Amino acid sequence: MAFAQSVINAIWRRAGGRCECTRNCRSHVGRRCNLTLTNGQWHAHHIVSQNAGGPDTENNGQALCIPCHENTRSYGAH
Q1: Which of 1, 13, 16, 33 could, after both became Cys, cross-link 21 (CB 3.0–4.6 A)?
Q2: Is the dihedral of CA 59, 50, 78, 27 positive or negative?
Q3: How confident is the model at residue 44, as a pLDDT?
Q4: Spatial distance between the Cα atoms of 34 and 72, rounded to a whole number of angstroms
C-alpha cells in the first residue's frame, strides 16, 4: 500500500514545504537538507519501509526532495 493523500498532505504541512532529510548525503552532511520542495519535486518517504512492516502513517513518513529520497537505502522498495 501507499500513503493516502490525506497523510501526504499532513506530512507536507508538518515539513513546512522543506525537505526533512537528515542523512549524510548531498551537501547537508550533519544537518537537515531543508531544500524548498516544489509541487511534484518531492516524495513522501516511509521511514520504516513497507517491506519491513512500516505503516502508512504520518509518523512513519518524511517529506524528501527527490535527490535525498534516491539516496535512501529503501528507495524503490515497497
Answers
A1: 33
A2: positive
A3: 94
A4: 16
The beta-strand segments (E) located in the chain are 42-46, 61-65
Task: Compute the distance between CA of residue 56 and CA of residue 1 in angstroms, rounded to an integer.
Answer: 7
Instruction: Dig out the grid coordinates for 76 from the structure.
Output: 524503490
The set of long-range contacts for 32-35, using a CB threshold of 8 Å and a minimum separation of 24, is: 33/64, 33/65, 33/68, 35/65, 35/68
Provide the pLDDT for residue 46. 93
Of residues 31, 30, 74, 25, the one with CA closest to residue 61: 74
- Tally: H helices and E strands in the chain: 2, 2
Residues 6+ apart with CB under 8 A from 22: 31, 32, 33
Question: For the segment 26-43, what is each residue's pLDDT rounded down to a tens digit?
Answer: 667 778 887 899 888 999
